[in-house]
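Risk register update: the risk of archive-format incompatibility is retired. Evidence:
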Amino acid sequence: MSLTLLFATQRVNAEPYSAPFWLPSGNLQTIYPTLFATVPQVDYRRERWELPDGDFVDVDWLNTDLPITDSTATPISSDPAIANPANDITPIVVLFHGLEGNSQSQYAKALMAATKSKGWRGVVIHFRGCSGEPNRLPRVYYAGDTPEIEIMLSRLRTAAPKAKIYAVGVSLGGNALLKWLGESGEHASEVITKAAAVSAPMDLAESANALDKGFNRWVYTPRFVDSMRPKALAMSKRFPGLLDEQKINSAKTIHEIDSAVTAVLYGASSAEDYYAKNAAKPWLDKITLNTLIINAKNDPFMPAEFLPTQADVSSTVNLEYTDEGGHVGFVTSPFPGHVEWLPKHLLSFFEAQP
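Archived output:
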């Protein structure tokens, strides 16, 4: 049975995580749910949000009878947009996905299905370039993209001034959300009600090092790099001279693709500079909002020895480290397994008082 280490200002009213006996390692617990676990199907209604800089992001709303939050957005699905009354208090769960994730990621569908079952509204906000269509500008999403988080959450708050808004960030999205919470301080409570981060690589340099070694380098890293490479090459063709195509083509590791693409477009001098400037860990002691951080100690992407301790975070941050679970895995029995524990745990935290 997996034990849970919980440093909490507010205990979560939910069952602790226990990994199935038939799924014995962090790697299996990471890989298995993306391939075999039972994941609910979710219907979405897509909107396009135009951004102040002339670019756009696509957001996928739970396709329910409940109103969406922004009557000014452009619907690009067959379903018409439905304006949201200003007095609507139905809670909203907003998800920021992980590296190369989207609304079809297994964790996104599981969370949105659980949100729908409660009668709440749910929305997955795609980072630029992750919705299936290239973004317009020579810009990529990145692990500390707090300006983007601020724009998206503020837009939701303006459109739904009376609703509780609960923000969830997964993996890379979790790091970005936590960094925004730390940078925002008291302002965060004016925008959202509570927040949670799952499997966030809060020490970006050590996470990149872990991904570029051993088993990780041969199994996980190629998947990420091979997904990022064609997007980077396409951007290079649209904006000649911006990126070095030879470096992009030769990149085999997270460090190399970040050096060739992310650091360049972000404006960092190197991948190391990019990691140092965008890691959430140094900002955790500045968070004032009630926040839950969930990480498995056998997460192959974020070594347990580099996870923040209670001394690294503020009194409003709940640290929950499970012995097992992998990276955004948290599969539970019976066989063939399901991924209901994580969304139930998150929603239980959001519902708990205060």
